[in-house]
Write a structure and sequence with these properties.
With 208 residues, the protein is mainly α. It contains eleven helices and two strands.
C-alpha cells in the first residue's frame, strides 16, 4: 500500500539502514538499487529519501522525488522546500544542474502535495515535447495524479489524436501514454500504486 507504515525490516536482504548507506557507494548500480528499494520501505524511509534529493547522482534525485510524491502526507510536506527547487530551477533561474526528468519528478511530487495549479503546467508542457521519453514520462506522471489533474485533459486528448496508431506520422508510444493517462484522469481506471516502467528507465536521467 502507498506509504505503508508496516514496512518489513528487510527487502531483498537489505535493511533500510543498508540502503541509505549504499546511496554513498561509488558503484552506480548499487546506488540505484538502494534508492529503488528505499521507496518500497515507504514512510520509514522518508528521512533518507528527503536527504537523497540533494544527491550528486541525478537518477537518485529523480527516484527520490518520485517516491516522495507517492508517500504523500507529512513525509512529502517536509520535502517541499527542496522539491520546489528541483522543479523550478530550470524555469526561474535558467540553470541546468537538474535534468528535465528530475524537474518532472519534482513537479509531480508537488502536485501530490496539493500544489497542482502551480506545478501541473510543467508536466503539461512536457506532454507536448516531441521527445518520446519526455512526453511519455510526463503523461505517466499525470496519470498517477488521476482526476485532480483534469486540467491536462485537453493536452492529453490532443496528444493522443496526433499520435493515434492509424496515423502514419504519429508516435504510437506517445499516443498510448497520453491515452492511458487520459483514462486515469477521467477516472476510467484505478490509479496505479506500483512502480511503473518509467521508474525503472534511468538511462537518460542524467542526460535530459
Amino acid at each position: 500500500a502507498r506509504g505503508n507504515e508496516s514496512a518489513p525490516d528487510r527487502i531483498a536482504g537489505q535493511s533500510l539502514v543498508d540502503c541509505a548507506s549504499d546511496l554513498n557507494s561509488d558503484n552506480r548500480v548499487v546506488r540505484l538499487r538502494a534508492i529503488r528499494t528505499l521507496g518500497v520501505f515507504g514512510k520509514p524511509a522518508a528521512e533518507a529519501l528527503i536527504a537523497a534529493q540533494s544527491h550528486d547522482d541525478a537518477a537518485v534525485r529523480f527516484l527520490a522525488a518520485t517516491h516522495l510524491g507517492r508517500l504523500r502526507g507529512e513525509s512529502l510536506d517536509r520535502a517541499i522546500p527542496k522539491l520546489k527547487q528541483l522543479a523550478l530551477t530550470n524555469i526561474e533561474e535558467g540553470e541546468t544542474s537538474n535534468p528535465e526528468s528530475v524537474q518532472m519528478a519534482a513537479a509531480y511530487a508537488m502536485c501530490e502535495a496539493g500544489k497542482i495549479a502551480d506545478y501541473l503546467p510543467i508536466l503539461i508542457r512536457f506532454v507536448k515535447d516531441p521527445r518520446r521519453g519526455h512526453s511519455c514520462y510526463a503523461s505517466d506522471l499525470i496519470g498517477r495524479l488521476g482526476p485532480p489533474a483534469a486540467a491536462a485533459t485537453q493536452t492529453l486528448e490532443a496528444t493522443y489524436q496526433s499520435n493515434r496508431p492509424d496515423l502514419r506520422n504519429g508516435d504510437y508510444h506517445i499516443g498510448a501514454a497520453a491515452r492511458n493517462a487520459l483514462r486515469k484522469v477521467k477516472g476510467d481506471e484505478h490509479r496505479e500504486t506500483r512502480l511503473t516502467f518509467f521508474d525503472k528507465s534511468l538511462s537518460s536521467c542524467g542526460e535530459a
